[in-house]
Amino acid sequence: MILFITEHQDDKFKPITAELTVFAQRLGRDLEQPVGAVVLGSDTSRLVEQLAAWKIDRIITVEDPQLGDYNPDGYVAALKEIIAKESPYLVLAGHTTVGYDYTPRLAAGLRRPLVAGCVDYDKQGDLLLLTRQVFNAKLNMRVSLRGEPPYFATAAPGAFPGDEVETGGIPSICLSWRSAARLSAGRRL
Amino acid sequence: MKIISCMKPVPDPASRLVINENKTWIRDKELTFVASEADNYALEEALRLKEKHGGEVVVLSLGANHAARVLRSGLAMGADRAIHLSDVQFAGSDEFATAQTIAKAVQADGGADLVLTGVQSDDLGTGTTGIMVAEFLGCAHATVVIAVEANPDAGSLRVRRELEGGVNETVELSTPSVLTIQFGINQPRYASLKGIMAAKRKEMKVLTPSDLGLTSEQVGRSGAMYDIGEVFLPERKSHVEMIEGTPVETAVKLIEKLRKEAKAL
Fold first, then answer.
1. Architecture of the domain whose range is B2-218
2. Which among A27, A158, B158, B184 is least buried, having the fewest CB atoms inside 10 angstroms?
3. Which of residues 70-129 of A touch B (CB under 8 A)?
């Protein structure tokens, strides 16, 4: 599965979410993998309604009062559990002040590759190649990933056209809850 | 407070970048290396925190001679001593291998209250290494930091983060923590002549993978999580397009293009 992590504020998705959806849909088509979306928050019902119109195979939500506002410990704990259950091939997040705040912890903690700030991808046989910018966008670098999945990537804002989201499809919605106590192990005060 | 400030050697931003023969990186043998710009803001913040609360500032860098030169510049700015992670096995390190090595070096030096890095480097520019260091150290982190207020007695920090769209957030962290420092948080000082002279007498400890308890498989290219396939010039997409019509029509078309094509709005 190609799993992407949505970003939202005030019950609305931020523009990066549509861009991640397009990135995931294209990868899903080319790699013949289902596409899953993750919504983390205190109440995700309105967000799930919006996502359900898009062509996504699976929507996974974690609702917890402590996920109402972004915090890295809560996100990493919730996503580790989802990844263990869903075994995705690739996990996508935005290269935003939220996305690049937690993905390095998540990837390093699981000892898996993270390619940050992707702008494009290629497929050579079964090999996935991800392209990112280096030297302040003066050059591009194409990389291949080592080891077993899950792999992690963040998408540079504006790299994928958010207005080309494919609609239709009937997602299976998987709701899961965590107790507040289990998320409170964070070291932020 | 003990603060370890990380400095990454990168090609001088004024350098002309030429892709190497194998297309795996740039030709960097003849280039001049300097500290990545954001790392100077991190070091300045470390020095200011020391001036306010006392303690020690240690600069740390990974790499060959370039790193030693960058560390000397950090010592000249006012850092107390330096740790140079230098060994041929460190070559080809990615963010993961670098972070693991830095975390081991921090631990080998007896830990620190704060580890600072620049928000991102001028070469790879992923902004991820500092956060991975926090994960390996098992401590808290905050990214894109634009203000730091420390309370060493309470072992806590209050930091302001810069988010998108001009929004900031304040978070409280316990020490030890890793902070990635945003450009422009302060005005980095220039090294004085006295500072440059003093830097020559300051301690620079050289550490290798075995000093850190790391095997050759865990560092450098062997310890990396991805392989560089190719470095290439981005496709140039610039072109000129004339929009015709009445002023209202052209304005509408222009706004549409700025939104949908340029994504500037």
1. 3-Layer(aba) Sandwich (3.40)
2. B184
3. 72-73, 96-98, 100-101, 103-105, 107-109, 112-117, 129
